[in-house]
Design a protein that fits this description.
The structure is a homodimer of 205-residue chains.
Chain A (H helix, E strand, L loop, with lengths): L1 H21 L6 H8 L3 H7 L3 H24 L5 H23 L6 H9 L4 H27 L8 H21 L9 H10 L10
C-alpha cells in the first residue's frame, strides 16, 4: 500500500504541474503517467478518467490556496490591510511561479474556467464553487471594512465579485505578458472598487 | 479561384466557431476541415499549420471587434458615456452569443491567453498586441474624461489597463456561470476605477 499511495501522489504532482503549464485538453493520461513515472494501470487504480484526476488536482490546489486566503483574510490586522495583503500575496505567488518555471503560470482556476467551462460539467461546477467561496471570503472582509467606515460600497458582494474579477483579469495579463508586476495595480484598483463613488454618482443612464 | 476563396472562408468560419466553443488544443486540422466541409488538401493550400490558421482567426476577430470599439469609443457622446456604452456592448455581445450557442463564449483573446500563452510564441505576441491596442483605445477616452474633470485618476494608462482587466475578469465569470448578467457590474466597477480615490488615500503601506 505504501507504493500505491506513493503512485497516487506522484500522479497528482505531475498532473498539477502539467495542467499549470499546458492546460487540460492538450494532455493525455499516457503523458501524465510518463511524467509521474508510474505505469498506466496505476492511474486507473486511483482515477476513473482524466476528468476525475483534474477534479482531484483542483481540490488539492484549492485546499492549499483556501488555507492561505483564510490565513491572510482572517488575521488581526485592519480589514483593508488584510485585503491589501491578499493582493500583494497574489503578485508574490505569480512571481515565485515565474522564478521557478520561467513563465507566469496564472491562476489554475481561471485557466481551466476559460479552457474548459463550456465542455466539462463537473469541472465547471467545482470551479463555480471555488470562485463563490473566494467571493464569500472577500465579502466578509469588505463588510468589516465598511462597518469601520473604511469602505463606502453599498454592495459588499458586488464589490467582492469585482475584486476577484480584477484579480483574475490582472493575472491573465501577468500570464500573457509573462510579467508578475502587472499585478502591482491590483491593490490600487481594489481600493477604488471599495470606495465605489458610483454610489453617489449622479451620471444618468 | 472562386471555389478556393470560398474554401478559405469556410475554414475560417468553422475554425472561429470551434475555437470559441472548444478552445485551441482540443482541435485538430482534420476536425476543422470536416466542420468546414473542405478537403484537407485545401487547408494546406491556405494555411501552413493550425497555428497560422489561429492567427488568421484572431486577426479577423480583432478586425471586427476593433471597428466596433472604434465606433463606440470614437463617438460624439461625452467620454464617460462612451466608456459606459463599451461596457454595455460587452454584456450585450455575450448575451447574443449565449442566445445563439446556448453558452456564454467569453472573449476569444482571453480564452486563448489563458489556454495558450505559455506555449505558442506567435499567438502570444499577437494577443499582447491586441490587448495593448485595447488599452490604448480606452486610455484615450480616460484622458478625455479627465480633461473634462469627469475622472480623477492620476494614471490614465493604469486605469485603462484595470478597466480592460475588469472586463476580462467579469467575462471569465460570465462564461464560467454561463450568465451574461455577471457583466452588469462592469460599468459601476469601471466608474469606481476612473475616480480612483486611492490617489488621495493616505492608507500607509
Amino acid at each position: 500500500m505504501g507504493r500505491t499511495s506513493d503512485a497516487e501522489s506522484k500522479i497528482l504532482t505531475a498532473a498539477h504541474s502539467l495542467f499549470e503549464q499546458r492546460g487540460y485538453s492538450a494532455l493525455g493520461v499516457a503523458e501524465i503517467c510518463k511524467a509521474a513515472g508510474v505505469p498506466r494501470g496505476s492511474f486507473y487504480y486511483f482515477f476513473d478518467s482524466k476528468e476525475s484526476l483534474a477534479l482531484a488536482v483542483i481540490d488539492q490546489h484549492w485546499a492549499a490556496e483556501r488555507s492561505e486566503w483564510e490565513r491572510i483574510l482572517g488575521g488581526e490586522a485592519e480589514p483593508l490591510r488584510r485585503l491589501r495583503h491578499l493582493c500583494e500575496a497574489t503578485e508574490a505567488e505569480q512571481r515565485a511561479g515565474q522564478d521557478h518555471c520561467g513563465t507566469v503560470l496564472g491562476c489554475m482556476f481561471g485557466n481551466l474556467s476559460l479552457e474548459m467551462s463550456n465542455q466539462a460539467a463537473a469541472l465547471r461546477e467545482r470551479l463555480q464553487e471555488i470562485f463563490e467561496a473566494q467571493v464569500d471570503m472577500v465579502e466578509a472582509v469588505v463588510i468589516e471594512a465598511r462597518d469601520r467606515g473604511d469602505a463606502t460600497t453599498p454592495d459588499a458582494r458586488g464589490t467582492a465579485r469585482s475584486m476577484v474579477a480584477q484579480l483574475e483579469g490582472l493575472v491573465l495579463f501577468a500570464k500573457l505578458y509573462n510579467d508578475p508586476s502587472r499585478l502591482s495595480t491590483l491593490w490600487p484598483s481594489c481600493r477604488a472598487l471599495l470606495a465605489d463613488p458610483a454610489f453617489e454618482d449622479s451620471l444618468a443612464a
